[in-house]
What does this fold into?
Amino acid sequence: MVTFKTEYAQSLIDSFSKPEAMPHIAISVDMLDTGIDVPEVVNLVFFKLVRSKTKFWQMVGRGTRLRQDLFGPGEDKQFFYIFDFCGNLEYFKENPEAVDSSLSMPLGKRLFVLRLELMDELDKAEPKRYPELRAATAELLRAEVAAMNVNNFIVRPHRRLVEHYAEAAAWESLSIENRSELEKNVAGLPSELIDNDQDAKQFDALTLRLQLAVLRAEPQFSTLRMQVEQIAGLLSEKANIPMVRAQMPLIEDLQTDAFWQDVTPTILERVRKDLRALIKLIEKVGRKPVFTSFEDELGTEAEIAFAQFTPGIDFQRFRAKARHFLREHQDIPVVRKLRSVEPLTAADLQEIERLLITEGIGSERDLAHAKEVSHGLGLFLRSLAGVDRVAAKAAFNDFLNGRTPTANQIEFLNMIIDHVADRGFLDPELLYASPFIDISAKGVDGIFPPEEVNALFAVLQNLKASAAV
It folds into this structure.
């Protein structure tokens, strides 16, 4: 198998080119389509969809090379076979014009091109703005080019450009022609500067598009902003993870209107750097499939509400705004009760519900959805307001009374208290998941004896019940 990650790929290809040497079969992804001449090839297997006419004929051309005496003295190569599993031959027979573009731009190349666009926008500004961001972006691209191996057969045809743009001086000023040759001939070439964190790179692409939207004053800024806010909302649910907790001030700021009021590309670059490594911690949640059956002839249009759908991004924004409101107004009586683990009354919830609506934090629909997903408004509000740490520790006083905990037990309890202080309560089943299993693979059962586990569960259930109305 020959890919850009294969060590000594060129040596393997050279061996494949020698009839007497192994290997005699080569499997590749975009590495043997062009630039390789092996006359002994008599079997081509196409196992991917191709819609570029130029690329298709280059692939076919790997089998058209003549070879004398291939099948014996006087028996020259006169044919070759194509085994096509994706209908490419039929496609180009029926549609000879086809298209001369790839189906999609690889993520690595897309990031390279987006950074070129960012530099272009920064260079256009008069007077020049954000010089540090421009310099940092140029260095990122220069380092990627410098890590391209000019002995790689894919890079080799562009050796002159690669060696030129591996120098810092080449990036000090880019003309239109420079940017064009970088995008067409350098972007997407294999580089040994490897970043395998696909989630982080997707976040890089999102923030780059957001930076460009700010510089160009594009209307898609609002959509991109909501995507970042949604990510921040999902990250805030992982506050019990130390590396996420360290970035919580930024994560919470991202969910406020004030942060976005005068946001700049430089601020967004800090967001990208600080959060990119955390994106992989967000759980991938699949949506339920929605099955529909439509008549062939459509009737009068009507708005249909599907029970399977939830408010999504809008609800995440409401959640973020409610969290910010509760933490900024801890002097409100009902918020004090939430944070001090005092039992709530129906009147308390009616008052806070009225406040959230009159202050423009959310709508009745938002609150109804909050009650549904959190099994009650009290639990939803407690999860956002958190619990005063002193009150959280006090909740475990009876549990600790008469016990002398070990070092591991103290550490485990402190993790529980941290979670309760930040999230308001803790469901017992979470004690068998990360980060609690970092202390013991068995979770709470590996730290406390069975009778103490039951007592601990009782404390957690009482904490949760205090917010359930």
Notes: Residues 198-281 form one domain. The chain has 22 helices and two strands.
